[in-house]
Amino acid sequence: MDQTAARPFSAADFRQRAAAQSPAEAGDSFGDHRFNPGHPRLRLKETALRDAAVLIPVVDRGAEATVLLTKRAETLRNHTGQVAFPGGRIDAEDASPEAAALREAEEEVSLDPAFVEVVGRMPDYVSGSGYRIAPILSVVRPGFHLTLNPAEVDAAFEVPLRFLMDPANHGRGSRFWNDREWFFYEMPYDGNRIWGVTAGIIRTLYERLYA
Prior knowledge:
Blueprint: H1 11-20, E1 30-31, E2 50-59, E3 66-72, E4 83-84, E5 87-89, H2 97-109, E6 116-121, E7 125-126, E8 131-140, E9 153-160, H3 161-164, E10 171-177, E11 180-186, H4 196-210
Parallel strand pairs: 1-7, 2-8
Antiparallel strand pairs: 2-3, 2-5, 3-4, 3-9, 6-8, 7-8, 10-11
């Protein structure tokens, strides 16, 4: 399908944008530090960062694609109850960040990799919690069935890609961390609070592919 035939927020258009994105320039740096320059929480050495990968699953719903997100289980020790992309740490057995993201999505919500087409990757996103996250771009074919892993995920839901790529929906929030204000993006949708690292990655996706 050529560029003129793809609807603006369809999976086909997303696939084309992912393939055509400009490579990161030398010195480009993506992550929470962009919103919090000089914050003491971010004084981590590069070697101390833990490697992780997340899947950005754009579901092909015709003219209006959606993005599959999860709500982390309330029983987890870290980031309890937060909205997230499927994903987690990259294990030594993972052949690549893409393999790790697909494995985690299958473990968390039983998303069958046979329905997932990896279409690209964004530059790594460094989180204030000490992770270097590889965001893996993908298109998901309809017909999949999800089974949630209750030890990791309380819910899974889809948000219109059009909504997430509209900067009017990219609010700014803050909270205090050791008496210093910490800033982040937040994108409330249908009773779900999308914020923090997940919203930061969405904002970066907007800036690179849709701005």
